[in-house]
């Protein structure tokens, strides 16, 4: 019977091509608008490391006091003093301090110009914590951290530039006139949002080209290439700076269980209380320990414009569906005599429902195909509305293609429910008497 009702539906659609075209366009444009904005929202609100997001935590310790913080929220970075102290305590399964740097890579070929690279100073635990995929070699060791070794991890793109994509582990890279030994090469890897450095990137940025040990970066007095906030002037010189209350370090820990997280939170409170007793803090301990998704939520990583545009586009879809309801109602009720005859010949209301819902589903499928084309155009044009770093994340992948078609068909069936109900209520006797 499905094939028969489908045949009837297609025949009915061909009888009123203009009305059919209006319904298909209404559904197509409504679905395309909502799916285009959803593609951006999905990209910015996704979980960047779903397999570990509940065991990775960002650490916050209030070193400024209530007069310099907002709504009791600790600063979103740590001082060098706190980052080093927490790292030395080794109270977590893994931990790493992190801050962005901007060194220049000097090629061996004197005819080539130095290359400015996005980079990070991190601990050895950074790589296994965040599951960075290695193409060659691996991360340096914690012993290298302790020895302040001149080692480096580079990404695939930089390896292609410096070593033509060949084996580079053990070779040297000139960084601002200093030589670093290559420990490993990371394959293509750029989690979005970049949860481990939301504060400096907003969550979306090009992938970093290299990583060096945090301890070595501090030895070389490499300044942060990100945010640097000081409640008061730290004074002249690097030594005064790293002993100050300026915040510029991220600090992440890996805690495999909830019990570990509770214990580490207790340790942070004890650490802050110890700083209070030592006279450094004059306020009660104020610390936070947030996992990846909690941290992204607090940092408002999802752009407000993507949320607003999604809400507006959904409203537009609703308006399109309301228009579709009116068009379907007009189309179905014009066929009241046909319905009356079918009912008089023994067709049940259930049969009428099936026939007209299948017809509406056909309209929805056609609208979905149109919406799919328009969604593709919309995704290509997202850069006209959103920043480049966010626009490039919106893609028309198989999941979005399937979702577009499902939404279109489902929307048309929802829009058809009331017109179909009205059609099923047609009284055969009245139609036969009037005709």
Characteristic terms for this protein:
12 strands; elongated; transmembrane; membrane; alpha+beta; 435 residues; cell membrane
General description of the model:
The protein is of the alpha+beta class and 435 residues long. It has two domains: 2-47 and 302-434, no CATH class; 63-254, no CATH class. The protein is 51% helix and 14% strand. It is built from 17 helices and twelve strands. Strands 1, 2, 3, 4, 5, 6, 7, 8, 9, 10, 11 and 12 form a twelve-stranded mixed β-sheet that branches. Strand 8 and strand 9 form a beta hairpin. The longest helix is centred in the last third of the chain and has 32 residues, at 349-380. The two termini are 28 Å apart.
Query: Total strand count, please?
Result: 12
Structure classification: alpha+beta
Distance between the termini: 28 Å
What shape does the CA trace take?
elongated
Mean pLDDT: 88
Q: In this structure, how is the largest beta sheet organized?
A: 12 strands, mixed
- Beta-strand content bin: 5-15%
Domains, number: 2
**Number of discrete helical segments:** 17
Q: Low-confidence parts lasting 5 or more residues at pLDDT below 50?
A: none
Rounded radius of gyration (Å): 31 Å
How much helical structure, as a percent, in the residues?
40-55%
- Reading the helices and strands in chain order gives HHEHEEEEHEHEHEEHEHHEHEHHHHHHH
Protein name: Putative ABC transport system permease protein
Main location: membrane
Subcellular location: Cell membrane
Keywords: Cell membrane, Membrane, Transmembrane, Transmembrane helix
């Amino acid at each position: 019977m499905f094939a028969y009702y489908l045949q009837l539906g297609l025949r009915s659609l061909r009888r009123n091509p203009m009305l059919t075209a209006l319904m298909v366009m209404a559904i197509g444009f409504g679905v395309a608008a909502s799916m285009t904005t959803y593609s951006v929202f999905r990209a910015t609100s996704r979980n960047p490391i779903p397999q570990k997001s509940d065991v990775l935590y960002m650490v916050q310790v209030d070193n400024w006091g209530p007069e310099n913080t907002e709504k009791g929220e600790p600063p979103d970075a740590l001082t060098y003093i706190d980052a080093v102290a927490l790292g030395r305590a080794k109270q977590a399964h893994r931990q790493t301090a992190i801050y962005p740097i901007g060194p220049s890579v000097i090629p061996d070929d004197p005819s080539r110009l130095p290359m400015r690279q996005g980079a990070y100073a991190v601990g050895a635990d950074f790589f296994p914590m965040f599951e960075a995929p290695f193409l060659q070699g691996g991360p340096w060791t914690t012993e290298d951290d302790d020895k302040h070794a001149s080692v480096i991890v580079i990404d695939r793109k930089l390896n292609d530039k410096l070593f033509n994509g060949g084996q580079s582990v053990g070779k040297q890279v000139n960084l601002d006139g200093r030589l670093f030994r290559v420990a490993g090469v990371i394959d293509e890897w750029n989690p979005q949002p970049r949860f481990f450095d939301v504060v400096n990137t907003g969550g979306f940025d090009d992938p970093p080209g290299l990583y060096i040990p945090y301890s070595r970066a501090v030895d070389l007095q490499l300044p942060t290439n990100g945010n640097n906030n000081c409640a008061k002037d730290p004074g002249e010189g690097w030594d005064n700076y790293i002993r100050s209350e300026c915040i510029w370090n991220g600090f992440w820990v890996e805690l495999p269980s909830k019990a570990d997280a509770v214990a580490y939170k207790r340790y942070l409170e004890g650490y802050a209380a110890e700083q209070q007793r030592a006279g450094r803090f004059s306020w009660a301990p104020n610390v936070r320990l947030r996992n990846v998704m909690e941290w992204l939520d607090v940092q408002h990583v999802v752009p407000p414009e993507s949320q607003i545009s999604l809400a507006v586009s959904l409203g537009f879809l609703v308006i399109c569906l309301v228009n579709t309801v009116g068009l379907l109602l007009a189309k179905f009720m014009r066929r009241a005599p046909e319905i009356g005859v079918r009912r008089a010949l023994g067709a049940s209301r259930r049969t009428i429902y099936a026939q007209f819902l299948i017809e509406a589903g056909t309209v929805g499928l056609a609208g979905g195909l149109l919406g799919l084309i328009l969604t593709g155009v919309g995704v290509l044009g997202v850069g006209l509305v959103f920043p480049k770093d966010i626009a490039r994340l919106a893609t028309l992948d198989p999941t979005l293609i399937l979702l577009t078609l499902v939404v279109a068909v489902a929307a048309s069936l929802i829009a058809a429910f009331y017109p179909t109900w009205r059609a099923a209520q047609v009284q055969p006797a009245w139609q036969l008497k009037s005709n």
